[in-house]
Amino acid sequence: MAKTSTQRLGIFLALALVMAVTRIHLSLFNHDVRDASWAVFFLAGFWLRGQARWAFPLLMAEAVLIDFIVISNTGQSFWSHYCVSAAYWFLVPSYGALWLGGNWLARHDLGLRLPTLGLAAVALLVSASLCYLISNGSFYWLSASVPAPRSFANWFVNLGDWYVPFLGTTAIYVGVGAVLHVLAVQLARASRHAGQTNLPR
């Protein structure tokens, strides 16, 4: 579905708002609100294909800014926080994997057909798994917050502890995005059909 510059900006702002509201939930909202950042980068890659030069860096900057604000509001130094280490910067390739997954899906989009659902599941599973492997692995092996001695056996246990919750949360948000996408496509088709029906004969 072709998008105008205004539509692309609207999509970007909506995704940025969702990430802001859910990512800052630790300090302002109930803890049951899950972080939608992974889904935001996947959906952005799908909906904003071809806009990576500006959209991806801005979303990355927003994610870091939110983390900085949330951590600072707890009275802690950003650079000495448990979650911030050399591994923190691996969020760029982690989120990049999600963006590329959404981008790949956009390039292979078959429209509102069953095969598209299968492609979407594969793209999400592969990109979210790669994101998790990079983010979790970099934290485990590079962060001073992880107690020594480190081992591959312990890392695999750690991977297993968090994989399903992260994947499940991302899938739920992407599912909501998919429903909104289907509704938008159907509305656009109905609008075009109505316009063609009302053309003078």
**Proportion of strand residues:** under 5%
Helical stretch tally? 7
Radius of gyration: 19 Å
Coarse shape: globular
Q: What low-confidence regions span 5 or more consecutive residues with pLDDT below 50?
A: none
Distance between the termini: 28 Å
Total domain units: 1
Give the overall pLDDT as a whole number: 88
Properties at a glance:
mainly alpha, 201 residues, 0% strand, globular, single chain
Set down the secondary structure blueprint.
Blueprint: H1 5-23, H2 25-28, H3 37-47, H4 52-73, H5 91-107, H6 114-142, H7 152-197
Explained architecture:
The chain has helices at residues 5-23, 25-28, 37-47, 52-73, 91-107, 114-142, 152-197. Helices cover 74% and strands 0% of the residues. The chain starts with a helix and ends with a helix. It has 201 residues and is mainly alpha-helical. Helix 1 runs parallel beside helix 4 (52-73), helix 3 (37-47) runs antiparallel to helix 4 and helix 3 (37-47) packs across helix 7. The longest helix has 46 residues, at 152-197. The protein has one domain (5-191). The protein contains seven helices and no strands.
Describe the structure concisely:
It is built from seven helices and no strands. The protein is mainly α and 201 residues long.
